[in-house]
Amino acid sequence: MKYCGKVVVTLKPGVFDPQGMTIRNALHALSYREVEEVETGKYFKVTLKAETKEEAERRIREMCDQLLANPVIEQYAFEVQEIR
Amino acid sequence: MKYCGKVVVTLKPGVFDPQGMTIRNALHALSYREVEEVETGKYFKVTLKAETKEEAERRIREMCDQLLANPVIEQYAFEVQEIR
User: Record's InterPro entries (chains A, B) (predicted)?
Assistant: First the structure.
């Protein structure tokens, strides 16, 4: 079976996000004054083979812990879908 | 009303993604041989004030077109939720 994992990696609460602040300021300068906050993160779409959805989820969680996210400053969330 | 827009910006199909290839190769080296492809993208969580959800969606679409995504090589998707 083939699965697709959509992973979002964001900074943990309290970690300084200068990129997000820069984007918020740029949006204000473009007249989007209603924007209160911008938080930035990374997105990964991982296509992989696995026997079951549970196995795909377990492997993607391992990949996040080992490579895709920095556990010191980042958190992650993902969802896995079967590809037909 | 306050709303939160979760925006994912990815490369358009056919646009070369060297970062994704590098991550796929790194995952293979870490013994995640079942990974077939990795596509990378950017994630933005935008908190904003708006009268209605439709207005929040319209404004976020404008921000994507003007600043958050490069329409030449990138595509975007987003969902908006009310924050209570």
Answer: PurS, PurS-like_sf
Longest dimension (CA), chain B: 50
| Contact state of A23 with B62 under an 8 Å Cβ cutoff | no
Asked if A34's CB is within 8 angstroms of B47's CB, the reply is no
**Which token pair is A79?**
């969802």
Which residues of B make CB contacts under 8 Å with A?
2, 8-10, 20, 23, 26-27, 30, 32, 34-50, 59, 62-63, 66-68
- The CATH H-level (homologous superfamily) assignment of domain A2-83 is Phosphoribosylformylglycinamidine synthase subunit PurS (3.30.1280.10)
Say how far apart CA A60 and CA B23 lie, in whole Å.
13
ipTM: 0.93
Structure confidence at residue A82 as a pLDDT band (50, 70, 90): very high
pTM of the entire predicted model:
0.94
